[in-house]
Amino acid sequence: MKIYIHGAGMLSAAGSSDATGFPFLPPQQETDSLLCKEPDYSPWIAPMQLRRMSKAVRMGIGAAKICLQSSGKENADALSVGTALGCLHDTEVFLSKMIDQDEQMLTPTAFIQSTHNTVAGQIALITQCHGQNLTYVHRGHSFEHAMINASLFLNEHAGQSVLVGGIEELTATSLSVMQTAKVYRHEKTLPERVLAAPDKGSLAGEGASFFYVSGQPAERSVAIHNIFTFTTRDTEEAVSLVKNFIAGSELTIEDIDFVLTGRSGDLRTEGFYDRLEHELFKDTSTGSFKQFCGAYPVDASFGLGILYRSMMDGLPESLKVKHKPTQLKKVMLINNFLHHYACWYLSVT
Amino acid sequence: MNKVYGVNTGVITAIGADTEACLRALKAGSTGIGKADFLKTHWQEELPVGEVKYSNEQLAALTGMNAGYPRTALLSAVSAMEACQPFAGKTAGLKTGFISANTVGGMDLTEGLYREIKEQHDPKVVGEIIHHECGAITELVAQHLGIHGFVSTISTACSSSANSIMMGAQMIRSGMLDVVLAGGADCLSRFTLNGFNTLMILDRQPCQPFDDERRGLNLGEGAGYLVLMNERAAKQCGAEPLCIVSGYANANDAYHQTASSPEGVGNKLAMEQAIQTAGLSPADIDYINLHGTGTANNDSSEGKAIAAIFGDAVPLASSTKGYTGHTLGGCGGVEAVFCALALRDGVVFPNLRWQKQMQDLNWKPVTELLTGRNLRHVLSNSFGFGGNCSSLVFSKA
After folding, report:
1. By the number of CB atoms within 10 A of the CB, which of A245, A262, A312, B232 ranks highest?
2. Closest CA in chain B for residue A125
3. Number of domains in chain B
4. Under DSSP, is residue A135 helix (H, G, I), strand (E, B) or coil?
5. How many beta-carbon pairs below 8 A join chains A and B?
6. Do B295 and B272 fall into the same domain?
7. Do B153 and A136 touch (CB under 8 A)?
8. What residues in B contact A112, CB-CB < 8 Å?
9. Are residues B340 and B207 in the same domain?
10. Which candidate from A129, A145, A149 shows the least CB-CB separation from B252?
């Protein structure tokens, strides 16, 4: 079922959006982790509450609030959130204390805030949203599944709206674990160079992005026609599944004005994106986004935000493209995090 | 819209390693709550739990899985295999999915490795820990069972696996999928035991849900799955419907991160909307499988929400947490299986250890086994942290 985006809120290493747009501030320093440039939360969260909130929770609330503002709404009828790793910081706080104190003299705060659904629960509390509230935790597909869930909900609840988001926080432990596992690279890189200098692993990132979606188009909205998620470790299979997706969406390559890809400078998927850019979309306008936000399991949410804003306001200057698009009417997002891939087909209404 | 049939079940809890074993214990009123043998904790002697009496090696042997996998994956695989087994090789050409749920992921192993992870970066340890995220548990099981197609994981605390059944039903109703294995799993871990202990809601004795003098909950572990199919898939697989998933709803209490609102706002919304999506009215519900954890807060809020919906005509109701303990992300799936059995066999399982009428309620749970009942529609409740409230309605096939 077709659903429509009416507003977005994004928090990233390249800055946060506001009610009117996304003032792109690409990160400039050499780093091994693109941490979120957090906004001033004081308009939305009381100082006492803010002190107790982990980064994941406050980023989620911030992005949700910016999203509502940009959509001109106070709240939505339902919430659907994707976060692969959830509230890592509070999980680690409780876990370390439990181990260090041999299971004694523990306090509940960190435990309470450690569950994966804390972010969605807190947004419900702050916006007094009594509607459906779900949290998807399926690795690199968490955000896509949250969006698919929103479309299932809207299919059965005509006229209602859903706030759909992706959140991931990076902690010192998760960074070092994923660096050791070669998910992320150890070496400090200049973010704008990350795509030009492929290496084992991508540049670590984090962030939160939310979208206000409904089943009805508006004068200025972006339609999500189709989302397809798949897992594979085989480049050939990945490329052929992308082709199937395009055919299944009743599109030809010529129909597509622009493709935003999840190229991340990770050697494991360079071959896949090369095939897309040099063969399948040889003559199509393409660009990539992970040099702005880093790689994280729900980074597609940031990519979707960039596309949404671009379809509203035009492509940002700092987004380098191959072939300048003549228009941005029909676009695709093709992304991966590790072996989890997703294709999105969007159009402007 | 397509009808959603529940055609088979798989379950493992402290009272049995498969559906029939659990059913025997439920009918016999035998509890699974007791001292932990496998969970090694400071609280071993003090906090009873609903532990599955199989070691990881034994669970691995039951499934052919790697014994080094997180226990949640092993438990999940046991009941997922039980549920899917009759349909092996029969689903060709059908769109299949696996929607699971859990809250602890591989925490049972993470908590043993955490110090090592912090202090040194042994690639071997790290290689293991990447299987500890919630979604990885589902993938391990999907891989082991050879399930392709749509695979997802939900984590909404104690209501998690009720939500995977809801999503599975929606995907069948809308025609996106033909067959879905839906439910969830969670294992005991020191992390969750200590977490609930700091909240001071764990009972030092076997729990007494819906009793006026209830002291709290016992944690449990387990997994529960339903195989859901549309009519075409059921025909192709030669599957006999056990029940129909006729209604579902998910609402939020929006009151507090861990506590339920005193009047059970979210609980009431979830139950009312689930009954409504089933096209029923409250009077049509013949049995409620209560969330009934045994905490002062849950049972009071849930009880009041039920009284508000059903008035003087509260249906037969019981909590099965007294048998299994609270299996967290697994309980929605486990109790969905129990509801399917109640419908199939016309039985209502007694609420164990109930003694004293709750002062703030006008109704009481069923305390004796009832058999030979014509149950048409049953309601299953799952409520959790984050204000998450889910209710499912199962109807006679």
Report:
1. A262
2. B254
3. 2
4. strand
5. 177
6. yes
7. yes
8. 195, 199, 257-258, 385
9. no
10. A129
Condensed to tens digits (0 to 9), the pLDDT of residues A293-312 reads 999 999 999 999 999 999 99
- Say yes or no: B226 and B367 in one domain: no
pLDDT digits 0-9 by tens, B22-32: 999 999 999 99
Set out the domains of chain A in order of their start, with CATH numbers.
3-214 (3.40.47.10), 222-348 (3.40.47.10)
B40, closest residue in chain A (CA to CA): A103
Q: Which residues of B are catalytic?
A: 158, 291, 326
In terms of residue numbers, what domain contains B365? Answer: 247-396
Q: Select the residue of B114, B127, B174 nearest A181 (Cβ to Cβ).
A: B127
Q: Which residue of B has its CA nearest to A83?
A: B155
Q: Are A226 and A248 in contact (CB under 8 A)?
A: yes
Q: Is B45 exposed, middle or buried (0-12, 13-18, 19+ CB in 10 A)?
A: exposed
Q: Do B386 and A131 touch (CB under 8 A)?
A: no
Inspect the interface and report whether the beta carbons of A142 and B171 lie closer than 8 Å: no
Rounded-to-integer distance, Cα A271 and Cα B78, Å: 38
Q: Say yes or no: B339 and B392 in one domain.
A: yes
Q: What is the CATH number of the domain that holds B344?
A: 3.40.47.10
Asked, for residue B242, whether it belongs to a domain, the answer is no
Beta-ladder partners of B96: B179
Q: How far apart, in whole angstroms, are the C-alpha atoms of residue B271 and residue B363?
A: 17
**8 Å CB contact of A117 and B156:** yes
A15 and A63 Cβ atoms separated by less than 8 Å? no
Q: Which residue in A has a C-alpha nearest to residue B132's C-alpha?
A: A85
Q: In this structure, are B340 and B279 located in the same domain?
A: yes
Taking an 8 Å cut-off on Cβ atoms, the answer to whether B135 and A94 are in contact is no
Residue B121 confidence class, pLDDT cut points 50, 70, 90: confident
Q: If 0-12 CB within 10 Å is exposed, 13-18 middle and 19+ buried, where does residue A46 land?
A: exposed
Percent of chain B with pLDDT over 90: 94
Q: Return the structure tokens found at B159.
A: 């209501």
pLDDT of residue B130: 83
Residue B33 neighbours by CB under 8 Å, 6+ apart: B14, B48, B49, B50, B206, B207, B218, B220, B322, B323, B325
The β-bridge partners of B393 are: B247, B379
ipTM of the modeled complex: 0.98
Task: Looking at the complex, report in whole angstroms how far the Cα of residue B388 sits from the nearest Cα belonging to chain A.
Answer: 7
Q: Rounded to an integer, what distance in angstroms lies between the CA atom of residue B226 and that of residue B338?
A: 10
B87 and B228 belong to one structural domain: yes
Chain A residues near residue B249 by CB distance under 8 angstroms: 132
pTM: 0.98
